[in-house]
Amino acid sequence: MQQTVYLEPDKFYHVYTRGNNKESIFKEEENYFYFLQLFRKYVAPFADTYAYCLLPNHIHFLIQVKPEEQLKVIKVDSEGMLQIDLQRQFSHLFNSYTKAINNRYNRTGSLFQKRFKRKEVTSEVYFTRLIHYIHFNPQHHGLIDDFSDWPFSSYHSLLSKSKTLLRRENVLAWFGGRDWYRKFHEESAAEFNSIAPLIEDDDL
């Protein structure tokens, strides 16, 4: 039996998964918004989100699990021990969304592949390139000519001044401000193919 690898407090992870047998996860626009609502319910209380992108048959998130001290405040057992299992929170998210989609579209069975992927982000270069990689994905997969026109990613939310659960100020400060954040995305398109194999271990 394969041992579960838990998402550890304080660490950064690239979390991604796809539809079972590459099936579409999102059938229409309202599905994307509903999925994000469930993400806010099940995952956001336990992890900070730095970037995301939702595509028709797969998803990407860059998250940082909250520090253990904050997680203890969120949920503790009778002895004050940490009980949050973020792996389970993601399972709740995927199961809840699958149930809604099955009811809405009269389908049965699993919607997502059995185990979602997660890779720890272990360097500053990886963190920087991963944000661009996530945002550039729709263009990479030929869904749109300009990645910045894709409506279901964090690219524009990070540029906007509207209220958000994203760690916007942290991301913009990392890139040196809005202008440098935008410029980095515009100038890094040619480097996508060189970093993609380092980020994904299968064809999404």
TrEMBL record:
Residues 8-137 form the Transposase IS200-like domain. It comes from Pontibacter ruber. Coiled coil: none annotated. The lineage of its organism: Bacteria, Pseudomonadati, Bacteroidota, Cytophagia, Cytophagales. This is Transposase. Gene3D superfamilies: Transposase IS200-like (3.30.70.1290). SMART domains: Y1_Tnp.
